[in-house]
């Protein structure tokens, strides 16, 4: 087998090895890359910035630990930005494996900003089947969640006293790694006209541009890049910005593999023709 | 009657949910809320059914010594281990054993599984993006452009690269995606109408 044929039929283990090295190098030798901010991320930042102290925003943390690397920095940066501005948060976690992870993030950020459960934020937790929960919250948060995550009745929480449903929150930001986002768009925005923005994993991003163009969502953060853009704008953390160097090297390596594969393909075809 | 009653229930439930959208009367909303709570209870029972099904399928595989049966043993043991921790060892709150296992086992395991995707994507891209036809060429070139534009290298190569990538996402990508979504939505509506009117009955067990 000649060189080009070998290049074209490269064993996948070599691909894994090179990608592994490309990912490890920036971890061992961290470097920063510039961040280009897109309009769809800036819209979310501008929305949160426009909120006044005491306003209430709904943050839906709808992902499992598997998507943490990409979307956790988004949730963290938004939460920090809200708490820094004294904006109150109602938080839910409608993904099955997410409530514990969301709780850890909330406790960590709340502790950092000296925020108290029931006064500055209300963590609702998880209830089965997100579609029905989102619909029910449109009528009253107390229907699916008579108590918060810690077992305290919602009526006894000072910040929830005059809060009934989506009409009492300024908007919803859904950070998700699955089809819960669709339910927020269909039921939250479609049914109750909630002002909605989303943050999703990189592979999901392309699916949601139509909703952005139609105005059903006013902002979109896509994957680690979206998270890094939000961090750059809000100046609340730099985890995603740091990780962008890893994504950069990984993308370059994948592009090089695509080019190499095609060189092998064209050259071996040329040879075969001869 | 074994077919007529489920079809009637399906028809009435579907019509009720459709009409409810157009009649925002308090009485209607109240019935809607009750039905929704029934649905939530049913879904909770579906989880129990799912566990029963997992046990049935995996026990069967273990009994028959099927391929990878030791993994099925791990699955069943882990399932009962977590249920036992959650029910009998202080619940699932912060500081419990359940919480510790969640953070130190499930958390890293799930992250690892998702991280492996990068390797598979690299390998798949290497093999799949061969420019054999015009369509394949369009796909490969677009993928490369978006991949470069999505990282700062693009901006280093050409100032307008990120804007160009945004244009790809907002115009050609969006047009294609919208066409697929509209097609799928029309299909879903027609299927829903067929189910409601009883023309589509395969959900009853097939005919």
Shape of chain A: elongated
Total count of domains of chain A = 2
Radius of gyration of chain B: 26 Å
State the assembly state of the protein chains. heterodimer
Summarize the structure.
Chain A is an alpha/beta fold and 274 residues long. Chain A has helices at residues 3-8, 12-28, 39-50, 68-84, 99-113, 130-139, 180-192, 209-214, 223-234, 239-273, and strands spanning 56-62, 88-92, 121-125, 172-176, 196-200, 219-222.
Describe this structure in words.
The complex is a heterodimer of chains A (274) and B (207). With 274 residues, chain A is an alpha/beta fold. Chain A folds into 2 domains: 50 residues; 203 residues, Rossmann fold (3-Layer(aba) Sandwich), CATH 3.40.50. Chain A is built from 10 helices and 6 strands; from the N terminus they run αααβαβαβαβαβαβαα. In chain A, strand 1, helix 4 and strand 2 form a beta-alpha-beta unit. In chain A, helix 4 runs parallel beside helix 5. The mean pLDDT of chain A is 93. The longest helix of chain B has 38 residues. By secondary structure, chain B is mainly α. Chains A and B meet through helix 2, helix 5, helix 6, helix 8 and helix 10 of A and helix 2, helix 4, helix 5, helix 6 and helix 7 of B.
Question: What distinguishing features does this structure have?
Answer:
heterodimer; A: 274 residues; alpha/beta; Rossmann fold; six-stranded parallel beta sheet; 6 strands; elongated; B: 207 residues; mainly alpha; 8 helices
